[in-house]
Amino acid sequence: MRGLQFDLRRSIFAGKIVTVPCKSIWSDWTDIAEVRIDLSEFSTFDIVWRGRGSWHIIGRYNKGAEEEKVDLTKNGVVTLEALILFIQRANSYNKNKLLGRKVVSYRNEYYLEGFEEELIDLLKCLSKSK
Fold first, then answer.
1. How many domains are contained in the chain?
2. C-alpha to C-alpha distance for 119 and 117, rounded to whole angstroms
3. Considering the domain boundaries, does residue 61 fall inside one?
4. 55 to each of 18, 32, 35, 46, 65, how far by Cα in Å?
5. Running DSSP on this structure, what letter comes out for residue 28?
6. Where are the beta strands (DSSP E) in 50-102?
7. Residue 125 burial by CB count (10 A; 0-12/13-18/19+): exposed, middle or buried?
8. Cα angle: 9, vertex 60, 49; to 5 degrees
9. Minimal CB count within 10 Å: which of 32, 34, 86, 124?
10. Domain for residue 3, yes or no?
11. Please, are residues 60 and 46 in contact by the beta-carbon 8 Å criterion?
12. Model confidence over 33-66: pLDDT tens digits?
């Protein structure tokens, strides 16, 4: 993978805009694309696991009376560190509001084995980095 030479902490924090490095797959080439997520546009986020090391961010927002879901990281977040920084930033953006956290669920989308171990690792890293 090319392009992993950027400073994660510098690139991910910019007020209500969070930049997350994600895999960009086209043809037979994998690259890294920075996905910009405006935290104010979404009511909540789900963190979805789709297999070993494949974490995705799903944004939810209300469109009239219906709730819409958008896969913001179609090919997955590049590193666990980037995902942790996103979760921290999203949850701190919503502090002191009615819903205390923006990230509301962690799901195993395809019911694959190994989810529990990776989720435990993610949660341990989150608790250490606070």
1. 1
2. 5
3. yes
4. 16, 15, 14, 10, 29
5. T
6. 55-63, 66-71
7. middle
8. 65
9. 124
10. no
11. yes
12. 999 999 989 999 999 999 999 999 999 998 888 9
